[in-house]
Amino acid sequence: MNSSSKETVKLEFESRSHNEQFARVVTAVFAARLDPTVEEIEDIKTAVSEAVTNAVIHGYEKEEGIVRLFLTAEGKSLTVVVEDDGVGIADIRRAMEPLYTSKPSRERSGMGFSFMEAFMDEVDVESEPGKGTRVRMVKKIGSVFPV
Questions:
Q1: Alpha helix (H) residue ranges in the chain
Q2: CA angle at residue 79 from 112 to 107, to 5 degrees?
């Protein structure tokens, strides 16, 4: 890919748990054009899994809806956006605290946002109760070099 070009993919899928794997694979294949390391691909896949799982489990709760996945590759940067039109998050800061879960009865670890922040270079969350959530994550390929 030319370092000055920009490529995008937009995808919509049903909020079913098995579509989390589909989103991971699509994102990994798309990210491959940036020539990431295996570790970078695994980081991206983990972050996408967490974001999509949050949309399915927390965003739509017991309802079904649509999850949107937007991927942008530009230079050596991958931007991933996961959106839902679900219940939204009343307190984003609290939701992003490690170990916080709004679904303790479902044995959720409360580490989704923590994983996203650990594996990606940037994580921004926008949400409004009753209007859904938008998670934007950026991974700069080749930004961390092993010592």
A1: 19-31, 38-54, 92-95, 112-119
A2: 10
Predicted local confidence at residue 5, as pLDDT: 86
Options 19, 24, 40, 54, the catalytic residue? 54
Residue 42 known to be catalytic:
no
The catalytic position among 108, 117, 126, 136 is 108
Tell me if 89 sits within 8 A of 112, measured CB to CB.
no
pLDDT tens for each residue of 99-124: 555 555 444 455 678 889 999 999 99
Cα–Cα distance, 36 to 32 (Å, whole number) = 6
50 is catalytic: yes
Number of Cβ within 10 Å of residue 91's Cβ equals 12
Phi, psi torsion values for 120, nearest 5 degrees: -115, 160
| Cβ atoms of residues 17 and 53 within 8 Å | yes
Res. 136 pLDDT band, cuts 50 70 90: very high
Predicted TM-score (pTM) of this structure:
0.86
DSSP for 28-70, written as a single string: HHHHGGG---HHHHHHHHHHHHHHHHHIIIIISTTS--EEEEE
